[in-house]
Design brief:
The chain is an alpha/beta fold. It contains seven helices and four strands.
Length: about 180
């Protein structure tokens, strides 16, 4: 099957791409992450995704970066929500809807997301964020997916961030560090 993988970052996708290929899928990575708080951070993560795509021999498509649109669509009125709360659910829907639209417009048979590899992301909430019948509900945490992503990111020298991407998750990361 021809699968479009929403790639939140290179490290997370580093466990997903090989698994999808093992399952016999043709994989294209889709870097669509307007949730990331700055252009500089977006570019660092994009570079890591490009390194992974080259190492895995897959195509990478980068979507336009528009954080202001993401803030309007996802965060307005939800700024004080806790991590893993309603703002995050809205963000999952936003990113999956963009991925679904790209997949449909470009002839992909299915799409999925690397978000489920993170132990900080509840896969059930991510799965509930798309009713699209072409959404593959792959829980990449299973079979030690997160450990694989950490190891593979290290092998490839990929930039590993310390927060999800938005300014709200950065705030939470700082609070947890103190």
């Amino acid at each position: 099957m021809n699968v479009l993988l929403h790639s939140c970052c290179g490290p997370c996708a580093s466990a997903c791409v090989p698994r999808l290929k093992e399952e016999g899928h043709d994989v294209t990575m889709f870097y669509s992450n307007s949730n990331i708080d700055t252009r500089a951070e977006f570019e660092k993560r994009l570079e890591a995704a490009q390194t992974l795509a080259a190492a895995e021999g897959v195509t990478l498509v980068a979507d336009d970066y528009d954080h202001a649109a993401w803030l309007r669509a996802v965060a307005d009125g939800y700024e004080n929500e806790p991590e893993k709360g309603r703002r995050c659910e809205r963000c999952y829907r936003y990113n999956l809807a963009r991925t679904a639209a790209y997949a449909a417009a470009h002839g992909f048979e299915a799409f999925t997301t690397s978000l489920t590899v993170s132990p900080h992301k509840p896969s059930a909430k991510i799965f509930a964020s798309s009713e699209d019948p072409t959404f593959l509900r792959e829980d990449f945490k299973k079979r030690e997916g997160f450990k694989l992503s950490v190891r593979r990111a290290g092998e490839l020298g990929l930039y590993r961030q310390t927060y999800c991407g938005c300014e709200f998750s950065k705030r939470t990361s700082r609070e947890e560090a103190t």
